[in-house]
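re: ur question from earlier - yeah i can do the single chain one, its not a big deal. heres the input i used so u can compare w yours
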Amino acid sequence: MTHPTPPRGGAPVGFLTELPQVEAAAVCFLRHWCESSQTQKQVIQDLNHLLGPTHGPIAIDSLGQMCALFSRFARRPLMRHHSGCSCLGADEACFANLVADATAGHREDAMLFAMLIVRADFAPALTGLAEQFGIALSVLNRNVTSSSSEQVPAEATLH
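and the output i got, formated as tokens:
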């Protein structure tokens, strides 16, 4: 008997609650942007409201351009979980790491994640957009202290 395998990239690898705020927000906004035109309009409103007139339009533009790259130049369809799902899919984890590394200025690492998502010739563009998106979302972290952002020693074993 053959068991159906989940689509590549859709396998759960964790939970959204395990991500730092910016990465979790990036995944949630990606899910909503891709879900429907109605939820896309809601994302635009939310980003403008949460990030203000300076960072909101930058986040909206960069997210829209990233999704356009995903639809045209992805190595395979980007798998996402439903917007209400607490799981984090493999492709979503890759996207979260792309945004995190690009935002932190770890361009080479971000490029590696980008090349897992899109063709190699579009990885630099995706990395730049992820950096813009992450920097805009980092406004969410201002004046917020979170226990989930505690540093974990590099030698720590999480699982």
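The radius of gyration is 16 Å. not sure if urs matches, ping me
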